[in-house]
Amino acid sequence: MYRSHVLVCGGTGCTSSGSQQIIQTLKDELKKNRLQNEVAVVKTGCHGLCAEGPVMIVYPEAVFYSSSWILSPVYPFPTIVILPLAAIW
């Protein structure tokens, strides 16, 4: 059983904005930090927020992240994920 799920939009708009790279980066970083058995990364269908893409939601906290929020220092996104994602955008 996972303690957290990261749902990453896999819709057309988000995919063209790099969601597949985000999914792979998340998985790589979780594995590198030995968290792959605690956090599940799930590719979902469209969330309907294509202009904000790529988007993701982290449960159980139900925190929503979009491309502008992921790299913002104002919003608390785990450091193990921010640094590798910064190279994507």
Provide a descriptive summary of the structure in words.
- The chain starts with a strand and ends with a helix.
- With 89 residues, the protein is of the alpha+beta class.
- The longest helix is centred in the N-terminal third of the chain and has 14 residues, at 19-32.
- It is globular.
- The chain is 35% helix and 21% strand.
- Strand 3 (56-59) and strand 4 form a beta hairpin.
- It is built from 4 helices and 4 strands; from the N terminus they run E-H-H-E-E-E-H-H.
**Computed Rg:** 12 Å
Unreliable runs, pLDDT <50, ≥5 residues? 82-89
> What's the helical proportion of residues?
25-40%
Strand order of the largest sheet: 2-1-3-4
State the helix count.
Answer: 4
Global outline? globular
Give me the secondary-structure topology.
Elements: E1 4-9, H1 12-16, H2 19-32, E2 39-44, E3 56-59, E4 63-65, H3 67-70, H4 79-86
Parallel strand pairs: 1-2
Antiparallel strand pairs: 1-3, 3-4
Helix pairs in contact: 2-4
In short:
With 89 residues, the protein is of the alpha+beta class. Helix content is 35%, strand content 21%.
Provide the descriptors you would attach to this structure in a database record.
89 residues; alpha+beta
